């Protein structure tokens, strides 16, 4: 029974529609009948996939099937170590993929936990405590402070009712609810003040309402449906590796078949050529690539944990590196989610308040000078009202800090928290900054009466006694409070509230509201000894207006710097929030998100746009305000259709569908709901936007390291294939035997390639725009580097083989010597080339000793090579003979030519560009090592 306009219905119309009375509720029989019609009031998880089927699905990937074939071939050749290694790689990738998909399904179960387990409902004239899943449309439910709303309800009666809706709407503070009618047809969720939504929490007051939607028809149910029907995006790395694997396998198999056929045509034995071809195929297929990618990502994950980012899905680490847009929620992500008073106005003076959050540290400044509270009685009165007219309290979470003297030396140790309403908490903190708190004032002022905040009158009042008598303290919305004020504190005196003074107050209230501040007015009056205070009307009259307090949820200090770094690195930041447009635009401008000329869009405007129109305008929009969950999903998809790699951050239930749909979803670890965490790829353990920048830097480095070892592995494999291919074309004997090819593959593709996976980033890593989502993995001249180095390695290996054959053609061991030289040349050439792969330019541009893991890996490979050449027990197995000084000279010269020749060419071309002018890299951030 989904109706978009329930907010327009009166209470009488609702009760008639549902055939129920507010006094009796439904009968048990009618409730049972409606349950048959509408189903249970619970969220569906959709069709669940068997864990075994999930696991088996991991092995349907093309690369996995090829690796299984490579395992079979390795077993046939007797290379059992290779076979076992490849099986381990297959199982590791399968297990990781299974864990990721299994976790993704848990997001719906986490969403179900937000449903209330029980509800108080009116059945047959009696309030019954029943399981919430038994509720049906038309049920009358009764709610009070601390209750979770069990279904979508239309309020019939409210009493000072506030509801916390931040997880659903993004509102940073509880929303006052009422039972009145809203006339507008289209009203955003955050403005539907007469509707209560499933999963939200009553924080104050009581209410009674009629259930209008249950189960999957509720707003929470719509989110569950979005999560179910939103496909998780395949990461750019997964797409590239899948594409790369297919290309490499087809090329390797094609060239291997050619080598075998040409060898047979030149008179080589068919059996020997078959085994050589199979060995070459196994060597050419980079079966170690998935393992090295997994290891590089896993090590990156460990580094990111130290930088406050917890990775749930390994490939997402790399995806962050190519993010071109970050869509960020405002409340709690870019802001602190701690309402803070920043400006005061009284007696015609504007005062600035320093300090942020709930920590009572700061000052009240006038003309950049601290105010002396002893000399300012009007300000003292305002702070007294702030401290006493409310029920909030702040407390220090770390009690051990109370006894320490040098608190300033350990600012991180203090954690101040709020108990109560955030708006009242902001006023309590304001007073505490000047040494006035409910505790310190409690000895002098004792509360006698309280008239709670009401959404109709928009005020709260308390009556306190003190040595001089009684006093009424009032705070509320300025437009309502001013009507109750007859006097004003002006220059320390109580004077009549004239029209001129009233206009000045109203003008200041409007100015503060335009600055995105939430404004409260504060007033008081002395109560006569025998005055009858029977109700709020008697208290809230003839008031003395004191001043205005403007508050805001302040931006995180580090978010501004992080956004600046993102902008200079070519990454656009977009704010998506459920808050009001004016507030969103002011925060976005303050943070540097909204540039001059940048567009802002409200949820209502977005709802009126087609997907095509949104796609045309999405690149010019920087702020989205008053948005619904489905709007966030549309924004993410529109950006993706424009070719962007989208990162979506958030902490609420309303963020979960968009988090799941984004290329990388980022949830907040502290304030984030379980639903958003389960839908995400990355969790920020400190809820710090700047940690995203650190993660982006790490992601970029990981991708560059993946490119490095792809460059290394493929250039090495190309060199091996071309060595054999050219030898067959020239009618030469086999330069490499099958066992030697496999050994080269094991020695040079193992430790050195893994060491490249943990290489340090280059200095200009964050000085480039993000790579495109569809960028080929061979882009930026990588394909040329692979082919040119591979060709040179192949030619130099073949040259060393040919030269050794020609030195003493009549020596019966000369072929074995030549094959040993070719074998050593190929290994050494690749070990030299691995240092060249560390730089995007040449081997001369980086310190070769910087990566100590790589140095150790190369030394280990050299020792293994020497063992194969000089240990007599191994020589018959690998068909090697010891090399003399002359052969080593040939080997080292030939092995060094590919890297040093191309490196010298790179240095020369770079000098020419600098001398004659050329393209310069874009200017980026000087430092990207932003730590939490």
UniProtKB/TrEMBL annotation:
Protein family: Belongs to the cation transport ATPase (P-type) (TC 3.A.3) family. Type IIA subfamily.
Domain of life per record: Bacteria
NCBIfam families: ATPase-IIA1_Ca (TIGR01116), ATPase_P-type (TIGR01494)
Domain Cation-transporting P-type ATPase N-terminal as annotated: residue spans: 5-79
Keyword Transmembrane helix appears in the UniProt entry: yes
Main location: membrane
Organism: Paenibacillus haidiansis
Entry keyword set: ATP-binding, Cell membrane, Ion transport, Magnesium, Membrane, Nucleotide-binding, Phosphoprotein, Translocase, Transmembrane, Transmembrane helix, Transport
Record's protein name: Calcium-translocating P-type ATPase, SERCA-type
One Pfam family in the UniProt entry: Cation_ATPase_C
Entry membrane topology: Multi-pass membrane protein
Subcellular location as annotated: Cell membrane
Listed InterPro entries: ATPase_P-typ_cation-transptr_C, ATPase_P-typ_cation-transptr_N, ATPase_P-typ_cyto_dom_N, ATPase_P-typ_P_site, ATPase_P-typ_TM_dom_sf, ATPase_P-typ_transduc_dom_A_sf, ATPase_P-type_domA, Cation_transp_ATPase_P-type
Parts of the chain that traverse the membrane: 62-78, 247-266, 272-299, 709-730, 736-758, 790-808, 814-832, 853-873, 888-910
SUPFAM superfamilies noted in UniProt: Calcium ATPase, transduction domain A (SSF81653), Calcium ATPase, transmembrane domain M (SSF81665), HAD-like (SSF56784), Metal cation-transporting ATPase, ATP-binding domain N (SSF81660)
């Amino acid at each position: 029974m989904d109706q978009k306009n329930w907010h327009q219905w009166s209470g009488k119309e609702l009760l008639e529609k549902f055939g129920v009375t507010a006094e009796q509720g439904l009968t048990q029989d009618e409730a049972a009948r409606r349950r048959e019609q509408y189903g249970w009031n619970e969220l569906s998880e959709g069709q669940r996939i068997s864990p075994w089927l999930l696991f088996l699905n991991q092995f349907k990937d093309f690369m996995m099937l090829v690796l299984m074939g490579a395992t079979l071939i390795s077993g046939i050749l007797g290379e059992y170590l290779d076979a076992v290694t490849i099986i381990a790689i297959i199982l590791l990738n399968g297990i990781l993929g299974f864990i990721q998909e299994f976790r993704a399904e848990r997001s719906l179960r986490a969403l179900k936990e937000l449903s209330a387990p029980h509800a108080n409902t009116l059945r047959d004239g009696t309030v019954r405590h029943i399981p919430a899943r038994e509720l049906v449309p038309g049920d009358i439910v009764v709610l009070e402070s601390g209750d979770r709303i069990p279904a979508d309800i239309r309020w019939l009666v409210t009493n000072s009712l506030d509801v916390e809706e931040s997880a659903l709407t993004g509102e940073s503070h509880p929303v006052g609810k009422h039972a009145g009618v809203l006339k507008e047809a289209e009203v955003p969720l955050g403005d539907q003040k007469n509707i209560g939504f499933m999963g939200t929490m009553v924080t104050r007051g009581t209410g009674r309402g009629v259930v209008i939607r249950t189960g999957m028809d509720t707003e929470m149910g719509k989110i569950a449906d979005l999560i179910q029907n939103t496909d998780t995006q395949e990461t750019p790395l997964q797409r590239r590796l899948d594409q790369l694997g297919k290309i490499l396998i087809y090329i390797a198999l094609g060239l291997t078949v050619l080598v075998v056929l040409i060898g047979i045509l030149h008179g080589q034995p068919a059996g020997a050529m078959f085994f050589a071809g199979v060995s070459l195929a196994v060597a050419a297929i980079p079966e170690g690539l998935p393992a090295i990618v997994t290891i590089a990502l896993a090590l990156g994950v460990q580094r990111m944990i130290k930088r406050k980012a917890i990775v749930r899905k390994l490939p997402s680490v790399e995806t962050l590196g190519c993010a071109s847009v970050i869509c960020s929620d405002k409340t709690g992500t870019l802001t602190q989610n701690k309402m803070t008073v920043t400006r005061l106005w009284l007696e015609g003076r504007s005062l600035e308040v320093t300090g942020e959050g709930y920590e009572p540290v700061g000052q009240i400044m006038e003309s950049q000078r601290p105010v002396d509270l002893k000399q300012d009685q009007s300000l003292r009165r305002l702070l007294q009202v702030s401290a006493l007219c409310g029920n909030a309290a702040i407390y220090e979470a770390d009690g051990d800090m109370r006894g320490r003297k040098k608190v300033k030396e350990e600012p991180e140790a203090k954690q101040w928290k709020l108990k109560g309403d955030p708006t009242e908490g902001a006023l309590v903190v304001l007073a505490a900054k000047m040494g006035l708190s409910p505790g310190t004032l409690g000895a002098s002022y004792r509360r006698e009466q309280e008239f709670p905040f009401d959404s109709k009158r928009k005020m709260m009042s308390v009556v306190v006694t003190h040595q001089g008598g009684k006093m009424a303290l009032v705070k509320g919305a300025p437009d309502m409070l001013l009507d109750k004020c007859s006097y004003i504190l002006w220059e320390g005196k109580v004077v009549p509230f004239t029209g001129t003074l009233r206009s000045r107050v109203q003008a200041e209230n409007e100015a503060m509201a335009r600055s995105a501040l939430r404004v409260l007015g504060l007033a008081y009056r002395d109560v006569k000894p025998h005055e009858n205070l029977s109700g709020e009307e008697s208290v809230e009259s003839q008031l003395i207006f004191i001043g205005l307090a403007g508050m805001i949820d302040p931006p995180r200090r580090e978010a501004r710097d992080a956004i600046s770094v993102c902008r200079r690195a070519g990454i656009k930041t977009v704010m998506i929030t459920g808050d009001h447009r004016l507030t969103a635009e002011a925060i976005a401008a303050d943070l540097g998100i909204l540039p001059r000329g940048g567009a802002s869009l409200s949820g209502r405007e977005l709802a009126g746009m087609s997907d095509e129109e949104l796609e045309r305008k999405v690149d010019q929009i920087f702020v989205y305000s008053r948005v619904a969950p489905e709007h966030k999903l549309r924004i993410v998809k529109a950006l993706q259709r424009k070719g962007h790699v989208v990162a979506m951050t958030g902490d609420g239930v309303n963020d979960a569908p968009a988090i799941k749909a984004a290329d990388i979803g980022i949830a907040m670890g502290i304030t984030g709901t379980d639903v958003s965490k389960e839908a995400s790829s990355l969790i920020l353990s400190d809820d710090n936007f700047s940690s995203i920048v650190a993660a982006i830097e790490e992601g970029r480095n990981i991708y560059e390291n993946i490119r490095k070892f792809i460059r290394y592995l493929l250039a090495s494999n190309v060199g091996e294939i071309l060595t054999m291919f050219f030898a067959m074309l020239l009618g030469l004997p086999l330069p490499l035997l099958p066992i030697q090819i496999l050994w080269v593959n094991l020695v040079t593709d193992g430790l050195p390639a893994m060491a490249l996976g943990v290489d340090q980033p280059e200095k200009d890593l964050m000085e480039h725009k993000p790579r495109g989502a569809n960028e080929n993995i061979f882009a930026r001249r990588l394909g040329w580097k692979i082919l040119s180095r591979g060709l040179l390695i192949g030619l130099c290996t073949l040259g060393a083989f040919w030269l050794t054959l020609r030195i003493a053609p009549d020596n019966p061991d000369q072929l074995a010597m030549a094959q040993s030289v070719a074998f050593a040349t190929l290994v050494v050439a690749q070990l030299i080339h691995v240092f060249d792969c560390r730089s995007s330019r040449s081997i001369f541009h980086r310190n070769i000793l910087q990566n100590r893991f790589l140095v150790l890996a190369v030394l280990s490979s050299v020792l293994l090579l020497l063992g194969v050449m000089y240990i007599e027990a191994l020589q018959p197995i690998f068909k090697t003979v010891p090399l003399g000084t002359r052969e080593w000279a040939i080997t080292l010269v030939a092995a060094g030519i590919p890297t040093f020749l191309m490196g010298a060419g790179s240095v020369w071309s770079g000098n020419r560009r600098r001398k004659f002018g050329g393209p310069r890299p874009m200017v980026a951030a000087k430092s990207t090592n932003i730590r939490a």
